């Protein structure tokens, strides 16, 4: 069977902002719709994790031979992110991991590379995660146009839901939009030129090249799926110039999510696959310093793919941010007065290395003597790892690994703490009892204004706690069931 | 357990500084003042002290014994620092008492001191141990509020009724505190003020939380059979028990978050050591670790003063008020004294000592026989717990 996509997943942050709020804050041009906004504890890594978990629902993580992380907003310039994600996803150690970055077509190029890797033989299954949290300077058009989000595609040659029938690629050295190693925010050249010499020129060139190479015509495709610029108009013009009918064009999520950079093409492909029928052909493309274009053909296998949160359910599950202050605060665009609390405990690289499975994959243990699952937590200021003596029967060294990250849980008790130092007070902390056994105490995030109650069901979510000396500290929190 | 401390050690002198935000005093000032009052009360001189135990939480790590020997210029005697969370100075007394009971020393100084307000922080600085940054964002009020949330849920107490129950705890302590010259906070607060105060961590509002203070307290101890040499009204140690939880409550689903197991266990052990059969009847008064109103409430059940789930009735009937059946926090407690960590345990014992001697002035309880102190360190799922019982008669 031909190589192709074997599973998909996506993630859109819970929080959205009406673009009206930016206009009200700064004036300037109006832009329709809303955009997604990361919570203060989210970034490209945490969103990539969410999309990967969604993609791998019902799939053995240990059977995957590699992970590519595609983004232009990696939290590290020197240090692999894909390896961190692979560890958090509890994947095998003898796998390929690589960050693919530097271009807004990083996602599609990562997929192309994954396909080649599978076709060449060293891997049978490759996970591509693509995620973006791009930063725009306040008071410009970009902060309205951008969105945050992620998608994940599993590439393989078995149980393929959409085969890759062919592809066409262009490399083009034109830097209309860029962010140097010195820049915090994205920059762009004068807008007419960047589209005339970039997106509106190169993207059609790639699509035409693809159709010519495979002798296809516009009418062959059920859907045509490609990313937007930093505004909405040019997207439609491309389809029109290539003679695609409006109903063929997949909604690029510009007015509901925003331009999610390299993740956008993957996210809207996921949306297309959610509605696709066996036999559908999809033309999928992405612009960014050149372009990638693919022909996909949906197979009968798509009916067997289990339920995913994907785009649809994540899109529906939302909470509107009502003011610009919180956006500034969450994105750390303003310096806040420091709370008069204890200094944050420094991170120990040695300690985190030793406890990597605890911190990243939320591993605890299960006592072989009495069967009690237990998370390695002694309280709010003590994580006893490894957990060698059973909390219930005191048996010594009878532990086997036990993973909590994929378990649901119920709130046993909780607090909302207004004194705690937080980027978004009050903090919510809950004691949860996991379904299947074991207890833990975790921060709660994305509460979304929901009233809490003892017994309420929660799920685990991978988040960034804080950064110390450039080390991003990722760990797990609870949240109310998202969708 | 084979041994018992009952009637083997006596307290013959105590000192306690003013507690509060003592911007113009250092830790040294507090140590000297507490020690001098204790020496004077006991009628002894510092040169006669044979050994000392020092309770201090924040400041003297690395100096340990020198943290006390230096400020007092103790002359080359053994000094041991004890740190055991918020039960620090209670445990210093426990260790010192064993040395006296063992016959090694017969005049020993125990002193606890804490200078917290120099830190410039709101609330207590939480010292984080071995956690690799996997912290959750919770302060002490947050940790203890979880008790209240679960207690209300388990016993089906509405938020309004629960707030009212807790408010009575703080109202009572504030009332008692008005009669304590050394307390940090000395004003009446109404039930309405308490209920309507800003929320720190629901359901705990501002007045449900104890303050943060500087302070110091000290005791001079001797073998019980030598006590009458020093004074006619020594106070005898009847029990001193320590129960340290195996940090299990946030790991095992067996913990119910409506009580504190180490309080219950320390209480049982202390009653056994002192020969107390019916705590509600036999204990005359208590100073418990009321870091938060809910802590005091569940402590009443753990110490078997009230039945499980029934403390609300005892609180609201005034059983624990100063004129009630079992007055609790006659000096105003942590609620009014604040909580200079290393000093609080001895401050509680200071009040029991004064009450047993009939020297508690306006807040004097009529003819108390046995006083109990309860000194909690940590947070509900895993505490270090001290429970002591003190009496004015041998036997």
Termini gap of chain B: 20 Å
Overall pLDDT score of chain A: 94
For the largest beta sheet of chain A, what order do the strands appear in spatially?
5-4-6-7-1-8-13-12-11
The pLDDT mean of chain B sits at: 95
Sheet with the most strands, sense and barrel status of chain A: 9 strands, mixed
What kind of sheet is the major sheet of chain B? 9 strands, mixed
At the first level of CATH, the class of the domain at 9-119 in chain B is Alpha Beta
Brief digest:
The complex is a heterodimer of chains A (483) and B (395). With 483 residues, chain A is α+β, with helices and mostly antiparallel strands.
Characterize the structure shown:
With 483 residues, chain A is of the alpha+beta class. Chain A has 2 domains: 4-330, Thiolase/Chalcone synthase (Peroxisomal Thiolase, Chain A, domain 1), CATH 3.40.47; 349-480, no CATH class. In chain A, 24% of the residues lie in helices and 29% in strands. Chain A contains 12 helices and 22 strands. Chain A has a 9-stranded mixed sheet, with helices on both faces. Chain A has a 5-stranded antiparallel sheet with strand order 20-19-18-21-22. A 3-stranded mixed sheet of chain A has the order 3-2-14. In chain A, strand 15 and strand 16 form a beta hairpin. Chain B has helices at residues 27-42, 66-72, 88-101, 140-154, 159-177, 191-196, 227-230, 261-274, 279-282, 293-302, 311-316, 333-337, 341-356; strands at 9-16, 51-55, 79-82, 108-114, 199-201, 204-205, 215-223, 235-244, 285-287, 370-379, 382-391. Chain B starts with 8 loop residues before the first strand and ends with a strand. Classes of the chains: A alpha+beta (483), B alpha/beta (395). Chains A and B meet through strand 18, strand 19, strand 20 and strand 21 of A and helix 4 and strand 5 of B.
